[in-house]
Amino acid sequence: MKGKIEELEAALQNCEMRIEFLEANKEQWKGQLHHSQDQVRSRDYIMGEAVTQIREVANYLQSLATKSMDKRLEKLEQMQRDMQEQMQSQMQEQLAKIQQEMKEQMMESQRDMMNQLSQFLVGRMDKGKCPMDNVGENNENPQYPPGFILTHVQTQPVINLQKPSVTIRPQ
């Protein structure tokens, strides 16, 4: 009994120490929370400033357009078209590369599946497994009783592997 009391007192003291530790950490967490909230407020302010600057830039560009800055505007439009063409060309190249990689992976996967299927089929033939043994040849001792009908015989599916057709059209 005395040993049990000592164990309980030790457990109580351990719990009290943990409570003190958690209470000490509570203040630290509060400080970190306030710091994080300040950071969020600061970021919100910066984002607000950025939005304001973006609006100012948009207004400035609009004023340029209304003041008949045709040459500059035409130059900007040409640069935009050039950049769009470059980006479109790069995206088409990347798409073609990705499609080629996918095609190669699909072909490799298809070869692997065909090899596995071939090995599987060769393995079945090697084992000599067949759903029926010499039907019609051995009438003396038939495999199934007379009048028995197989209801759960599965036929092997016919696999028709064709190359996928891919059409790439430029946009």
Automatic annotation (TrEMBL):
Coiled coil: 5-39, 66-108
Keyword field: Coiled coil
Protein name: Uncharacterized protein
Source species taxonomy: Eukaryota, Viridiplantae, Streptophyta, Embryophyta, Tracheophyta
